[in-house]
Design goal:
324 residues, 21-stranded antiparallel β-sheet, 0% helix
Length: 324
Amino acid sequence: AYERLALDGRAAFTLTEELAIEGTVCVDGTFADEQISGCIDAEGDLQAVQLDARFRMPFTFAGNGTVALAENGPIDLAASWQNANLAAVANTASPAGSLQLSGTVLRPRIDAAGTIVYGQETAEFTTSAVINADDIDLALVRLVQGNTSAELSGVLTRTLETGEFELELRNIDPQRWVADWRGSLDATARVSVRTQPALEILASDIVARGDLQDYPIAAVGALSFADEVLTIDALQVVSRSDQITLSGRVANDLDVELEASIADLSIVGGDFSGAVSADLRITGSPSQPFVRGAIDLVDFQSGQVGAQTLQITGNAGLGSDDAF
């Protein structure tokens, strides 16, 4: 989107013999298909230039403060925005927020806070970062939604091509995905990101703990995403004596292996009860999965359907129009 930057501007400055400056720069144009208009007033000298900015882009943005241009001088700028809704970031908006720019000209520090909206979800965010000569030190990026929080810290290159982060999630509510799943989970992971030449994400050392349906639960493993393929590396979920292990790849086609041994099916929610063990391979596509393997059920009950023992071995398509 950056190649579509097109601005028309005007500037009027007065420069004195003592290198003092006073004037205004105004712009009016487009950036990333968004209209931008506004002005920056500047007044001062090399030791301290007072800035006052106001823009619409298409949201309102205003800031003021001082910058010392000589010998890597200090920065003290404050800004705020309202009704930020950039079309370049789909379904995302920030109704309000503020930032503080401090540090020095060559090593600025950014502290920001505000509200972010994605689709129907709303969260509060805070972030702190220091821009170094070669990289950006993310001291903290924190999102909070209700009792759930996500924190990210680490380092990324100034070109935004690579990054190494620590991720921490607290009070994850499983009912966001399955209505019957009562509980709460905490999780940590190491995350590596590469954006060029294509997006690659590696989440290693994943550790999750909490409770699900009044059962203690823990999970370990690793995930990666590259070339539009999600790879699952021995993701293991354990609850007491119960265990589920997932490995494989998910893309336009599936190749996933699942092993499960669950002593009490009530952990999955609904009206299921009994025990199950399974050794399955899932292929096909996400819309037309194909399952082969074996399932053993003991004292199984779901509604009016029950079986003391039931062994199922074979193949089955699980698409909406597949026969079982």
